[in-house]
Design brief:
CATH architecture of the largest domain: 2-Layer Sandwich
Number of helices: 14
CATH class of the largest domain: Alpha Beta
Strand content: 15-25%
Helix content: 25-40%
Shape: globular
Strand order of the largest sheet: 1-9-8-7-10-12-11
Structural class: alpha/beta
Number of strands: 12
Distance between the termini: 46 Å
Number of domains: 2
Radius of gyration: 20 Å
Length: about 375
């Protein structure tokens, strides 16, 4: 697999005018409502109607269920579990039986949560592990047979767009845009992102100037280089493996002033860095999401993590046993991004693909156009 850099005209703000329904609307799953003869959706504003987004990645299984509000949405249920679906994939090219069983167990919990909600629309996606595994399609069929959930394996362009849609509200409107990076378990998306205020009363929409998807993430990098005992030389080897994948993207972005841009990170790596920087006694999304860090602060946390023994990483409340062997691989990917784009500021996003799915579903259903949530 190779990374691809794009400077597209086809990743426009999705569904900004109220009258337009974006192409991805065909993926919506509808259960309880129908359309009136005038084309509007019946019962859309029911107080108990929810939208659902599920993201099955190489490392995590995550679900969000939310209701529209004025200019956004309110989360009413959530689920997250580390399943390491891509464990061993880099060597075998296949999803392992134990990993698939872990994922199915987590997805069964998600199915139970969805079954007790009145779901107006949902999108359930799988990303790099299922994309690249020889038995990815067979696993998706198994998931449907055992849980009733119909997962959709999305391409990298869709993954980049959804991350952008979810994180756009955190782009500083006074800047020239942001370099968004989403460090996943099996791939990393980097997006040159602007925002535009919408005319439908919903969140700002994403303008994507260029993007790249690199088939390396925390699981794949950690499996290649090791994640338990990481020396400074080993860390640099990780950075050096990832850094050349950004060369085409840097050329696509062209001349730019990093002082007028900022980094915007969405992943367990950057939220962990923020939690460690803040010395949180336990992880707290309300303190992490939207946090600004300067370049010196990021570098200090990375150095601190490199100096930590593995046991100390395990004991840290913002890392824990499930991430302790992955966090330095993520930091190496972040360092490669920082060297390619030496911006002064990094904003941390505890949001991403799932929030992007929710925004696209709600915008496609014109929930904010109705005025009911204004």
């Amino acid at each position: 697999m190779v990374d691809e850099t794009h400077k597209p005209a086809d990743l426009r703000p999705a569904g900004v005018p109220c009258r337009e329904e974006p192409p991805h609307a065909r993926h919506r799953s509808r259960h309880w409502h129908g359309r009136r003869s005038d084309g509007t959706v019946a019962d859309r504003q029911s107080s108990d109607s929810c939208y659902a987004a599920l993201d099955l990645g190489t490392n995590n299984c995550r679900l969000l269920v939310a209701r529209p509000t004025s200019g956004g949405f309110r989360v009413v249920d959530a689920f997250s579990r580390i399943v390491r679906l891509g464990e061993g994939l880099i060597g075998s090219g296949r999803l392992g039986e134990t990993a698939m069983t872990r994922a199915v167990e987590a997805l069964s919990v998600c199915a139970s949560k969805l079954s007790v909600r009145r779901i107006a629309g949902q999108r359930l996606i799988a990303t790099e592990a299922c994309r690249s595994a020889a038995n990815g399609d067979a696993f998706i069929a198994r998931v449907e047979a055992e849980t009733g959930l119909k997962l959709e394996i999305v391409d990298r362009e869709t993954e980049a767009r959804l991350a952008a849609a979810g994180c756009t509200p955190l782009v500083d409107p006074s800047s020239d845009g942001a370099l968004l990076f989403d460090i996943g378990g099996g791939s990393t998306e980097v997006v040159w992102l602007d925002r535009v205020e919408t005319r439908d009363g919903g969140p700002p929409a994403a303008i994507i100037r260029a993007w790249v998807s690199v088939p390396l993430g925390v699981v794949t990098v950690a499996e290649r280089h090791g994640g338990v005992m990481v020396t400074r030389d080993g860390f640099e080897a990780m950075v050096n493996e990832f850094r050349p994948h950004l060369d085409g993207f840097v050329k696509a972005v062209g001349p730019h002033d990093c002082g007028r841009l900022h980094l915007l990170g969405t992943s367990g790596t950057v939220t962990t860095i923020a939690g460690v920087h803040l010395d949180l006694p336990r992880y707290d999304r309300s303190q992490v999401d939207g946090t600004w860090l300067d370049a010196l602060q990021v570098g200090c946390v990375v150095d601190r993590l490199l100096a930590m023994p593995f046991s100390e990483r395990v004991a840290n409340p913002c890392i824990g046993a499930e991430r302790a062997d992955l966090v330095l691989a993520g930091c190496a990917i972040l360092e490669a991004v920082r060297r390619a784009f030496p911006c002064d500021r990094l904003r941390v996003a505890d949001r991403g693909l799932r929030e992007g799915i929710l925004v696209e579903l709600m915008r496609a259903d014109r929930v904010w156009c109705s005025g009911a949530y204004r």
